Amino acid sequence: MKKLKEIKISGISLPLYAFFMIVLAATIALGKLPLNMVGITLLLVLLGHLLYFIGEKLPIMNSYLGGGSVFTLIGATLLSFFHVIPSDVITAVGKFMGGQFGFLDFYIAALICGSILGMNRSLLVKASAKFIPVALVTMVVGFFAVGGMGMLLGKGFADSVMYVSMPMMSGGMGAGITPLSQIYADGLANGNQTAIFSQLAPAVTFGNIIAIIGALSISKIFAKSKYNGHGTLVSATKEELAKPKIEFDATKIGVGMLYAFSLLMVGVILNKFFPNIHEYAFMIIIVFVLKAFDAVPKALEESVVMFNQIIMTNLTHAVLAGIGLALIDLTTLGSALTWQFIVLCLTSVVAMGLTSWFLGLFLGM
């Protein structure tokens, strides 16, 4: 029993976590799970943490296949696909994530605002001079390389870049194709986020696998050469890399939440006048400019970072579980894995990898 207590899932001892899961399972089995914020939050947090924990422990999965994050998505998707979780609960999760409750907006506001304001300003400015131009040029090359290959394969330029290139460049599931799928859904006629997310997910998953395997191989091949940066993209001092120590304060966390939500609302207002640009994009630009010009008082910045850390620590796995349960269609996911799709993913990784390498050498990175 003592050894079991030493096993912790997101800071919770295994026996206590098992108790939570039994209560959740019993409530669902009896058809009594409240399909509101309380019930759905409990479901997503417990399920998300558990699946992430398992994924991080599985060999190969934790090294090459995206670890806990991807396993959480896959596991939750399978639970939904095989009807382990009742359909009414899945429907409620879908409404909670996007439709009526907007849980994703809540999460993404914390993610964007806290992530950017939490960066070291001097490092951000320094990175802007080299890293950002390299990243932008690399993305442009990758964009047109995938589009061109798509035309050669008969998949079309637009479909190839929208459903392979763009999601692969978005950065992942939670902060990547989650907002991207919403942007597509808002911009396309009769856009459905669930269907679009399922079309974007294969590119992110398979692209990450290729990129991880490729990066590990290159790292080993060039381990003792001058071409290995040993994880450093832009030279930085210890002070720039050091994360400031923040003492958590309940009141400040509330202030940070209000600030993040207010900036998202500014994005919503701007989207009203410029509907082709999503509010998330406006929010990113606004926060980046505020950070670059040091326009946010230190105390307020720390408040936002506190709010970000609370949400990222406790709700990231829940978001992934919710996406898997309600936003991924396994049938669509499986049908996407064709040989043309694999070629397009390889094209993106190889083209962007080579471009960034040449530009990095040219700029002395």
Question: How are the elements arranged and paired?
Answer:
Blueprint: H1 2-6, E1 8-9, E2 12-13, H2 14-29, H3 37-57, H4 61-64, H5 67-81, H6 87-97, H7 103-117, H8 121-152, H9 157-169, H10 173-187, H11 193-221, H12 238-241, H13 250-273, H14 279-292, H15 298-327, H16 330-335, H17 339-363
Antiparallel strand pairs: 1-2
Helix pairs in contact: 2-3, 3-5, 3-15, 5-15, 6-15, 7-10, 7-13, 7-14, 7-15, 8-9, 8-17, 9-11, 9-17, 10-11, 11-17, 13-14, 13-15
Would you kindly provide a written description of the structure presented here, covering whatever features stand out?
The chain crosses the membrane at residues 12-31, 37-55, 64-85, 97-119, 131-153, 196-218, 253-274, 280-300, 312-333, 339-363. InterPro entries: 2-OHcarboxylate_transport. Pfam families: 2HCT. The chain is built from 17 helices and two strands. The protein has 365 residues and is mostly helical. It is globular and about 60 Å long. A two-stranded antiparallel sheet has the order 1-2. It starts with a helix and ends with a helix. 76% of the residues lie in helices and 1% in strands. A hairpin with a 2-residue loop joins strand 1 and strand 2. Helix 3 crosses helix 5. The mean pLDDT is 83. The protein folds into two domains: 1-98, no CATH class; 103-363, no CATH class.
